[in-house]
Amino acid sequence: MASKYMQLAKEIVKNFGNKGNFAGVAGAGNCRAIHAEEGNIRVEFEVEKDQTNHFETLHGGCTATLIDNYTTAALLLTKQARPGVSVDLHVTYLSAAKIGETLVLDSTVTKQGRTLAFTKAELYRKRDNVMIATGVHTKAFPAMKKSE
Question: Tens digit of pLDDT for each residue in 87-120?
Fold first, then answer.
């Protein structure tokens, strides 16, 4: 069963890596899926220059976008497979990450219902497990209006 989720995770990562949109600008293009199961995806990537701020550390907006993208990816790896729309995204920044450092982002669905889902993410440095950021992301599944 895990291979089914890993194949889907690789497709999701590939689609997020499209350099023609903001996800590409935020650096999803160099992410690699390293683990996937129902409601969980783990990716790793190296911090690149275009992902950094003027201090040459991972930009907070890039961090938030990666957490947004990959908590959504975790939702796509559920039976419902719905991305939803963001209601709330809270990111806590704990440490800096420099260009060239390999980071791991682990995203998990903590609870999913009919109208809301709750997810969480941890971003940490691979070499020493120092936590870079954490995030919680609430997604809604609004009722689809019937077209007239």
Answer: 999 999 999 999 999 999 999 999 999 999 999 9
Classified as helix, coil or strand, 38 is coil
**Cα–Cα distance measured from residue 16 to residue 79, given in angstroms and rounded to the nearest whole number:** 20
Cα distances (angstroms) measured from residue 69 to each of 22, 24, 29, 127: 11, 11, 12, 23
Rg for the chain (alpha carbons), in Å? Answer: 15
Q: Where do runs of H (alpha helix) occur along 77-125?
A: none
| Sequence letter at residue 135 | G
pTM above 0.85, yes or no: yes
Pick from 58, 19, 50, 16: which is nearest to 33 by CA?
16
Domains of the chain are: 2-140 (3.10.129.10)
Give the least confident one: 2-11, 17-26, 44-53, 119-128. 17-26
At 60 the three-state DSSP class reads helix
Residue with tokens 């990537």: 45
Provide φ and ψ at 68, rounded to 5°. Answer: -55, -50
